[in-house]
Amino acid sequence: MGDGRTGDTARAFELLEPLVLAATVRIHAPPDGYGGPVDRGAGDTWGSGFFIAPGWVLTCAHVVGEGGGGSVRLTGREIGITFSAGADGSTGTVAGRVECVLPETDGPDALRPDAFGRPGFPRPGSARSGSAHPPHPALQRPGGLWPLPDLALVRVLAPVSHSCVWLSDRPRPRFEDVAYFGCTDEMGYPEITGRCTRLRGALGRQTALRLGAEDEVEAGMSGGPVVDLVRGEVVGVVKARRQGGGGGLAVAVTALRDLPMGGRGRVGLYRRVMQGHDLHHYDQHLSDLNTRRTWTDVHEELPAERESFGGRQRLTAAERTTLCGLLAELPPPGSSEAVQALAEAARGEDRDPGLKAPLTWRDGLGLLYDPPGEVSEAAAMLRYATDVSTADHREPPAPGADDELWDWVRSTAERLWRPLRRELGERREQGLADRARRHRAAVARPVPGPSMRGPGLLPPGPSVLLEAWAHSWEEVCDWRVSVLLGPEHVSPVDSGVRVPPAALPAALRAPLAEGFRRCDSHEWAALLEVAVDPGLFTLPVDEWTVTGTTPLGVQRPVVFRHPAGPPPPTEEALRSRADRWTRVQTGPVQDQRADCSRGRPRDPSYDWLAGLPGHTVTVHCRLGGLHEVREAGFGVAVARRPPPGPPGSCAPFHRGVRDLLAETGRAGYLPLRLLTLRGRAHGRDPDTYWAAGLGLVWEDPERPLPFDEPLHGDL
Fold first, then answer.
1. Measured between alpha carbons, how far is 102 from 153 in angstroms, rounded to an integer?
2. How many CB atoms lie within 10 A of CB 360?
3. Which residues pair with 265 in a beta bridge?
4. Rounded to a whole number, what is the distance in angstroms from the first to the last CA of the chain?
5. Which pairing describes strands 24-28 and 45-53: parallel, antiparallel, or unpaired?
6. 98 Cβ partners below 8 Å, 6+ apart?
7. Helix, strand or coil for residue 513?
8. What angle is formed at CA 382 by the lines to CA 378 and CA 384, rounded to 5 degrees?
9. Residues 172, 202 contacting (CB under 8 angstroms)
């Protein structure tokens, strides 16, 4: 292949390189503190990694074990990650925590056979000299490779904006042209670069991939991605370089399926990460706010795939991304056997027993490439998706999620031949009938529903009431803190006038502490009710600290209320509010986007809101329409503070709220569910980053606020 590139290979590399560089990271010692996307000194390079889902970096175990001597425990270790923070070439540095390593071991000195049947070797300590990042010791010693699969999954400990690679869903890679990327210092400073070669074979039961000798695997590239240049997908992780020259070894990304399974009632780490991966690319594909090309866009342009995706034989790149996203919207399958059975039924033959077990609905798609006989990939994948839409799930899917999948299948089949469309319709009807029959057979067995999964109701007793009013002519606020014992009993604590919003946390620290001292008991922390106009819902009250360093939203439930006002003008309006409140408390609740439609702003009208079902909880990603929601009689709404930076997709927020409501079931559990969610976010759980700025509007008609005139500062 000469320099490693044919004409099509060079074009594919040119298309894919910007996407891969944006997602590949440099791994090094952890930074001081937890920073965001800003440049900092980061020390010597340990190796490379790459983002595979929002908040998750994949690398090699031996990379995260660097610099720790011979006995460092890898799981839980903190590392530094330098990543691409923008299109202008700027970088950011953030801390990460090693969540899991494969094979599971407390440190690199564990003596165990490696994947080739050879005994493992004790890992020497960091032997750095001369170069900023010399070859890794474990990669230089004959037979001393870190045991396969040599992977580590790292959580990012701060919410940062970044790109993600597209991971292959194929059970084994093709031995074709690839590119591998990682950090080198050829120019005298760390830089992410890429080289081209071919996959030459597989070892260790398809876990290790041989990289051709067309180019060098440099020190520091360990942990970087290996990209199939024909299909535009990451198939492996760079592991080692060959001692005598070019080429080396990589680990197949299918080894991620060896991640520990979740405990009883919990979703395993692999399934959670892959769901995040697919939803990220689905959101990027649907968003029209991003002007940069996505992986889906580039897949459409790859020379080798351009023709084969057309016509009836394969799904287009856009259709494949959409299908993966819709499958990720569903609860994960209950077992690998369920996925395998549906894939075999759609493909028309049994699965190769030598392949890794499929753990997600997406893995099932990977079994459908190149089906036998006259079956086309498009037909097999649409049959599979039809069967998934009628399958039993480990928990109820979000309302309408399986119907949305079927609607997509039906519309996609329009471009295919008529007999297949008829077959899919019959397949759907039979699947629904079979599912109904299974449900009738199981009706005698009690199954916990969403309404049974809440952590508890609001704490009884008095609450602390914070009221604030903004001056319309200048940016200052008046405030008042009280103890709310009941509709007619309010005990004042303190008040103030003409305080800038930025100074409110300091001004309110002592009054709030006094209010909590009056209300808290040994058994619970009292509710904090924040009564403000919707324009002040941007106050980050849940992030304020009163005592210690733990934010208020982690210590106690916090809800927003509208300022006290006169009662509704008619008895009918009073009954409507009471009815809606009863319905959402009884559940199950349903979510409804109020101030956006598919990411575009909209202003909800009173008539439209009033026509929504009584068990609806409105969701506001832009704080729009909250006045109208109150007038229409909604007592519960979910809103978020506008996130900092340029506008992005609101889909992760809406998806997270939808799942939160579906899991909670009854609105009565929401305040404490948000308390738990904020606690996870405070612990830097990346699965909760969608909830940043989340607020709950809680207008309990049985606890009306006393109507009083607001304070007025000096004019």
1. 9
2. 27
3. none
4. 80
5. antiparallel
6. 64, 74, 75, 76, 77, 78, 79, 152, 153, 154
7. helix
8. 120
9. yes
Distances (CA, A) of 445 to 438, 441, 558: 12, 9, 38
Amino acid sitting at position 338: A
For the chain, the average pLDDT equals 83
- Which residues are registered as beta bridge partners of 154? 57, 98
pLDDT at 69 over 60: no
Q: Where are the beta strands (DSSP E) in 115-175?
A: 151-156
CA Rg, the chain, in Å? Answer: 28
481: left (phi over 0), alpha (psi -120 to 50) or beta: beta
> Looking at the DSSP assignment, which residues form a beta bridge with residue 482?
465, 492
CB burial readout 470-498, b (16+ within 10 A) else e: beeeeebbbbbbbbbeeeeebeebeebee
Of 244 and 130, more confident: 244
- CA 270, CA 169: separation in Å to the nearest integer? 13
DSSP string covering 627-647, please? HHHHHTT--EEEEEPPPSSS-
d(CA 19, CA 298): 9
Percent of the chain with pLDDT over 70: 83
**What are the residues whose beta carbons fall under 8 Å from the beta carbon of 250, sequence distance 6 or more?**
180, 208, 209, 211, 226, 236, 237, 238, 239
Phi then psi for residue 250, to 5 deg, are: -135, 165
Rounded to the nearest 10 degrees, the angle between the axes of helix 651-664 and helix 269-286 is 130
147 exposure class (CB count in 10 Å sphere: 0-12, 13-18, 19+): buried
Q: How confident is the model at residue 444 (pLDDT cuts 50, 70, 90)?
A: low
CA pair distance 207, 225, nearest whole angstrom: 15
Query: In this model, does residue 115 exceed pLDDT 50?
Result: no
Residues 141-183: tens digit of each pLDDT: 334 578 889 999 999 998 888 999 999 999 888 888 999 999 9
For 367-376, how does the pLDDT look when each residue is reduced to its tens digit (9 = 90+)?
Answer: 999 888 777 8
ω into 588 cis (within 30 of 0): yes
| Contact (Cβ atoms closer than 8 angstroms) between residue 177 and residue 362 | no
Name which of 178, 194, 160 is nearest 84 in CA terms: 160
Asked which of 58-72, 73-87, 219-233 is least confident by mean pLDDT, the reply is 58-72
458 and 703 Cβ atoms separated by less than 8 Å? no
Instruction: Identify the CA nearest to 211 among candidates 165, 246, 166.
Output: 246
Q: Determine the Cα–Cα distance for residues 133 and 144; give it in Å rounded to an integer.
A: 19
Tell me the whole-structure pTM to 2 decimals. 0.82
pLDDT by residue (tens digit) across 299-350? Answer: 999 876 655 544 458 899 999 999 999 999 998 887 787 888 899 999 888 7
SS3 label, residue 538: coil
Name the token pair of 448: 């916990």
Mean pLDDT (whole number) for 485-501: 85
In angstroms, rounded to a whole number, what is the distance separating the alpha carbons of residues 217 and 244? 11
Residue 399 has pLDDT above 60, yes or no: yes
The per-residue b/e assignment along 647-671, b for 16 or more CB within 10 angstroms, e otherwise, is eebbbbbbbbbbebbbebbbbbbbb
